[in-house]
Amino acid sequence: MDSSGKTSYLFRKSPLFRILTCGIFVIVVLLIIYFISFKSKLVPEIDSIVPPVGSPGDVVVINGKNFGNSRDTNYVEIAGTRLTASSYISWTDTSIKLVLPANVKDGLVYVGIKDMRSNPLLFANEVDIPIPVPSVQQVSRPVITSLSSEKVNVGDMLTIFGNNFGDARNQSRVLFTIDYNRKIRDSNVKNISYFTENMIGANEDEFDYVMWSNTEITVIVPDGAFSGVVIVDTGKQRSVPKEIIINSNAGEKFFANKKIYLLTYSADVADVYCDGLSTITLRAPIPFETPAQPQVETTDVTPVPSLMKYQHDVIHQITKTRPSTIKNVMNYTFVLPVYEINTKMNVERIGAYTKMSSRPLFNYATQPDSLIPSGDETVTALEKQITGREKNPYKKAKLIYDYMLNNYNLLKKMRTGGADSRDLISKKRGDVFDFAVIYTALLRASGIPCFMDAGILIGQDLSTQAHWWSEFYVENFGWIPVDVALGSGLEYKDWGDFEQSPAEYYFGNLDSHHVLFSRGLNDLKPFSVDNKIVKQPRSFALQTIWEEATSNVNKYSSYWSTPVVRGVY
What are the start-end ranges of the H helices in 261-392? Predict the structure, then answer.
């Protein structure tokens, strides 16, 4: 009898064999069901997004595992929006290829399968992110053949004619001479090497780049520019300098008393309570670059961030799969030079905003926002009361400054984060933050472009404190700093390096002990519309989001330190 016959005989004649056989069969079936169920419940995981930065129409590949072998009802979500069927090119268990839609936004990317979602990764829109992007290779050096005018004012529109500028700007810049420490003014012999030793670029944040093509560039002459030369810098090669004269009819600006600071601060997150896979995102401010604070260097960030420089922040993401009491600590270190700003104005030559009133910067710096209540009836009424029929922007700014010094009392202690700065107008007292908010609001209500600045104030003993001040724009000149709180007698360990009274000095001048972290309100959008937002009111940077957590994070604790000085040179 063959083996099959023996098996058949045993199955018919042996009850025990039949029971064992049926038992084995049932176990096998259960194991198959278990493995199928287990496979179907595998949580999708994203390992990478290639590229992590893109723009509408780009092809993006999401790499990972457990995506499923076909899309069916599965989906990809970017910044809270699920992509439509037309966006998908291919879908496998380990790779998803898709085309970015026209309305793509910055935000977190998820892969969703049935009732499960993957861990999130950050995607950034190339249009908004200031990081290097691929550019057309320059075949030869850029050449400037002529300028639309060889004598201009700060804020004027300048057209540069030539060749080999590149079809798009990408990371290219237009550079102008700046006179640090009066080196050019005080020199008896002026040559090209003097003019090119210190250069500043047209400011992207102030909408200075108007048009760029391979043969023609239109740019706004930036704040701080000084008579010398203009250069087109493609990042690979620089043009031969072209001489240019910057008028000083409205006044002069001086940068002196340079100090170099080594700054550090930290943020930590602990005691995270969540339901499954969750993410907490931190947005750590970077010191702002200006003519008075050039060449900010981020020397150390730990751990490695998700994005190094995005919307003036370093982005860190913390992912948890279960509740955790472990403390995650992020550290940020910067080296940056800071110059004192002095201005000497020809007040009677300052006129109305005839040239810049139609430009984006004017609208951006004169409109009310969630921080500056320049449209409030109380503010507009007070502005009219103070300035009366005065038309000169500089004189109006000084009238408002003097009014605040003479009528408002500065509190020694900071008010709570939720306090309304408009209380200063009715109660005649407020803190440093309130003084900066109301001064900026009154100038904007008067039609004067004005930013509220935020950062830290460094004492002679290198102690630091969060601090706020303002700067307003004068046509044909540029930005003028004003620190109403210090002008009002704010007590701190000053350096004693100017002879004027604080009230006289801090209108039009600013010492090199102010470190700037933000100019105006950095109005940020969450990476997902469902995220929970955390703000840090009255902190050393003005931004609408400091932290955001996915919806399944129930609670956590966080702490941000004020930046401290580790060294000054």
Answer: 360-366, 377-387
In terms of phi and psi (left: phi > 0; alpha: psi -120 to 50; beta: otherwise), the region of 312 is: left
**Token digits of residue 301:** 């960030």
Contact by Cβ (8 Å): 503, 524: no
Q: Which residues are CB-contacts of 26 (< 8 A; sequence separation ≥ 6)?
A: none
| Residue of 542, 522, 530 whose CA lies nearest to 107 | 530
pLDDT value at 446 more than 50: yes
Write down the pLDDT at residue 139.
53
For 444, phi then psi, to 5°, come to -65, -40
CA dihedral 286, 498, 399, 471 (to 10 degrees): -20
pLDDT in tens, 217-239: 999 999 999 999 999 999 999 99
Q: How far is it, in rounded angstroms, from Cα 385 to Cα 302?
A: 52
CA distance 181 to 255: 6
| CA–CA distances in Å: residue 515 to residues 263, 269, 293, 296 | 10, 26, 8, 11
Whole-angstrom Cα distance, residue 343 to residue 349?
Answer: 14
Check: CB of residue 440 under 8 Å from CB of residue 450. Answer: yes
- Rounded CA-CA distance 87/104 in Å is 11
Cβ distance 160 to 230 under 8 Å?
Answer: yes
Query: What would you measure as the largest C-alpha separation in the chain, in angstroms?
Result: 121
Average pLDDT, the chain: 90
What distance in Å separates the CA atoms of residue 315 and residue 547, rounded to the nearest whole number?
10
Please state the pTM of the whole predicted model. 0.82
What Cα–Cα distance (Å) separates residue 207 from each residue in 15, 105, 204, 359, 366? 89, 21, 5, 8, 15
Q: How far apart are CA 256 and CA 253, in angstroms?
A: 10
Rounded distance between C-alpha atoms, residue 569 and residue 564, angstroms: 15
Query: In whole angstroms, what is the distance from residue 424 CA to residue 413 CA?
Result: 14
What is the token pair recorded at 518?
Answer: 């933000």
- Measured distance CA(175)–CA(182) in Å, rounded: 19
What the block records as the tokens of 271 is: 């005691």
DSSP code of residue 507? B
Distance between CA atoms of residues 466 and 457, nearest Å = 6
> What's the CA gap between 77 and 528, in Å, rounded?
10
Euclidean distance between CA atoms 4 and 569, whole angstroms: 92
3-state secondary structure of 273: strand
Q: Does residue 206 contact residue 191 with C-beta atoms inside 8 Å?
A: no
Rg (CA), the chain: 30
| pLDDT digit string, tens, across residues 490-516 | 998 888 888 899 999 999 999 999 999
DSSP string for residues in 315-353: EEEEEESS-B-PPEEEEEEEEEEEEEEEEEE-GGG----
Six-digit token pair at 180? 């640090």
Pairing of the two strands 228-233 and 478-482:
unpaired
